[in-house]
Amino acid sequence: MAANLPVHSQVQGDIGATEPRTEHDEHLHHDEHHEQSFISKYIFSTDHKIIAKQFLITGIFWAIMGGALSSLFRIQLGWPEATMDWLQPVLGKWVEGGKLNPEFYLALVTMHGTIMVFFVLTAGLSGTFSNFLIPLQVGARDMASGFMNMLSYWFFFVSGLVMFLSLFLETGPAAAGWTIYPPLSALPQAIPGSGAGMTMWLVSMALFIISQLLGGVNYITTVINLRTRGMSMSKLPLTIWAFFLTAVLGLLSFPVLFSAALLLIFDRSFGTSFFLSDIYIAGQALNNTGGSPILFQHLFWFLGHPEVYIVIMPAMGMVSEILATNARKPIFGYRAMIGSLLGISVLAFVVWAHHMFVTGMNPFLGSVFMFLTLIIAVPSGVKVFNWLATLWRGNIRFTSAMLFSIGFVSLFIAGGLTGIVLGNAALDIQMHNTYFVVAHFHLVMGSSAFFGLFAGVYHWFPKMFGRMMDEKLGYIHFWLTFIGVYLVFMPMHYVGIAGFPRRYYAWTGFDSFSQFADLNKFISAAAIFAFLGQFVFIFNFFYSIFRGRRATENPWRSSTLEWTTPVVPGHGNWPGAIPAVYRWPYDYSKPGAAEDFIPQNVPFSETKSSNMPNEREQD
Amino acid sequence: MIALSILLVLVLLLVVFGLLFRLQILTSIFSGSFTRDIGLSNRANAILMLVFMVIGGGAFAWSFADNFDKMNPPIASIHGHALERMFWTTMIILGIAFAITQVMLFVFSYRYQHKDNRRAFFFSHNNKIEVIWTLIPAIVMASLVFAGWKQWTKITGPAPKDSVVLEVMGKQFNWLVRYPGRDQKLGVVNYRLIDATNEFGFDLNDKNGLDDFVAGEVHVPKGHPVLLRIRSRDVLHAVYMPHFRVQMYAVPGMPTKFWFTPTKTTDEMRAQLGNPKFNYELACNQICGRGHFAMKLNIVVDEPDDYVAWFAQQKSFAEQNPDVLASFKEKSDKLVTKEAAAAVVTPATKASL
């Protein structure tokens, strides 16, 4: 299959470790010593490893932005009476007479959501690790198309640039919530952020979707076509399964968001009425009739719901890998893990309207979506039980990555369970758009995915930069974050059960929402504390790139293919031939084996003492 | 102040952490374990897992119990009580699942921490166990779905025929309320007729609208089904009434509805809570712009007799705004004469063409 591809470097895909090196190999080896200019090596690079680092560092920048924005609005929510003059140097006219502008507050909330969901947890997470790990773990020289891969990053970069610039607009950035429901997002008369800010949001998102599609096509093609000899789909590490299905999800759902954005652009700029009808605003009746704001919500959530799985599945894959490696145990139920990923991927497309139970949608549809939504809890539950069973009777090393993986499982349980309340249409009547929802999704997709991201960075840092991150600082970072996240989001459930609406600038106008002023202060303090804790990571990350302890080829004694490359893999990943694969990726602590792990590229003929009865060489 | 002291405690914890780890590095260098692959810090983390579970679990349980009363707003509708029971039943089931899985996670982490002389148990799969832990959640889910579905169909089913009907309309940034008057029929409205006086866009050519009245707050009778007709005239809003467990979006161009039966009058609730200033409130729960957080409407639940008395006192919109009514008369008169003229003129005009 791969040999038919015209891409020069991919021809190596079919050449196994046991074969003598061909001329081609020599040629490739020679290639490595070509001097590359700084620009083609580090900026417009087509090497998947460099692109992954570009995604990661851009993602870190956006995470700091997103976190800082949330600190700003948490100050407002925790201390609604306080004067904020001290923020004037940063926020300028958005602080009027010591008070944060309510419209800017909404802009902060909107930008925080957009940045975190799309730029950090989609691009930063799956952009980094799909790029870095897919070729290394399936045994490929690079992505199927290095050029498209480069475009994917640069579209993302420009998309981010547009979004960043929109923060400095006179009328402010988009402020209609990250879900940009029209008519609010369609009418600049309704909120100033829906003027130029919204236009830039839509342009940025269109570019972002292009970036996602370029990346996704590449990930899928690479996994299907460029696996090394012996790497059947049933021998793929779970990380690759997760990245693969994530890319499929993105490829099928992002175009729908694109269509929604396009129709919204038409409504905004060309006088159409896809989402607008019967509107009287700013002393004027608009001519639009016949449109439906609910149609937009259907289109939006058709991406929006798969999007949360796009965010969480890569984290699930990496956590599975890291738990197995550091518990020195095979992942429990490898096939069930793949099955549940497949189940989640399919169900992800048929649950979107559970975000819309109380929008006036036909209640019968509500019943259908309630049923489908609660089914998706089953594969998620299976994953949790399998992770627990993986830890059981393991021999656990608490590396920083392992700590974050355990934290991931804990947060995923804590946040996932409340989804069962929210997926129940009857209970959602009360809980919809309250802080219960905010607490739920921040735990299950926000914090969990962040923990997956951290786990991935700590685990694969040695392969990225050839150095180790400091473990002690990693521990401190983990415990600060883990404690911080729970301190923020557990009390937030109480506020939600009491019915506090989200996206409120202050609750002081309502008697119904007056009881938790202290708790809101507490949550704000904890949020800022947890945010500050992240600087431990940022210091550790950049310090270790240059000064970290030097890594060995396989510091975690892991059995997947990326650890068979040199300490810092060069262009083409393996200096010689690409190793062939003989076994599944989780041969840890196999009875009878000399070591407590057997890499995937070790043939069964070399491990006679530990082979199971059915394990024989297939070629 | 509390937040500050908590922050201080956390900062101190941070310092303690730092010192502990520094100390640990120094001792490990002396003991020679520094160069080993897996050192003392492994044990420290394992213990911390257990400590986190105990202290974190305890703190959670304590704070949950401490805040329990505050997080339960009093309920004043029939379906609200049913939902409340279902919510806490679900939460108990989830709580059990939460406790079991979290305890397993942290206890396994502690119990199976690295030991030099132990080897992990090679246990790759067991289909029987997988089937069990697929089926059990599936069965629990199925029963939850069924209970939820029953309530949902009941709540969203058609309102009883004798319901009190009223209309709530959202606009930036307040709520407008309209009652159908004595004929129990809401008149036709048209958003193109909206202006500063005619905020609803009454089309007073429709006779049903002549006795409709507009109110500054919602009055509903206790023990009687109430059907809210919900509209918006600009952007999305949502009618959210936490005490009644009512929530429904207000969508421009697509009227929505929700019905419920209040069970306690405002006075009864004031007495029950010992708070003479208590009011049922309606909040906007869908982001709608600058004033979103202040879109409040008071709801008064009356004894049925008081409600009837209040209803009788209200003056219709048409009665209060005779000039608006007059303008409609004028327009329709003009329309009638025009039509009559057209009917007469047409054949002649046609012929001339």
Describe the secondary structure blueprint for this structure.
The complex is a heterodimer of chains A (619) and B (353).
Chain A: H1 23-31, H2 38-43, H3 48-78, H4 88-91, E1 95-96, E2 99-100, H5 102-138, H6 146-166, H7 196-225, H8 238-269, E3 280-281, E4 284-285, H9 293-327, H10 334-347, H11 363-375, H12 377-391, H13 400-422, H14 425-431, H15 435-465, H16 471-497, H17 517-547
Antiparallel strand pairs in A: 1-2, 3-4
Chain B: H1 2-31, H2 40-67, H3 78-111, H4 127-156, E1 164-171, E2 174-179, E3 213-215, E4 218-221, E5 226-232, E6 237-241, E7 246-250, E8 256-260, H5 266-273, E9 280-284, E10 296-302, H6 304-313, H7 317-320, H8 322-352
Parallel strand pairs in B: 1-5, 4-10
Antiparallel strand pairs in B: 1-2, 2-3, 5-8, 6-7, 6-9, 9-10
Helix pairs in contact in B: 2-3, 3-4
Features:
heterodimer, A: 619 residues, mainly alpha, two-stranded antiparallel sheet, two-stranded antiparallel ribbon, 4 strands, globular, disordered N terminus, B: 353 residues, alpha+beta, Immunoglobulin-like, five-stranded mixed beta sheet, 8 helices, 10 strands, 16% strand, elongated, disordered C terminus, transmembrane (chain A), membrane (chain A), electron transport (chain A)
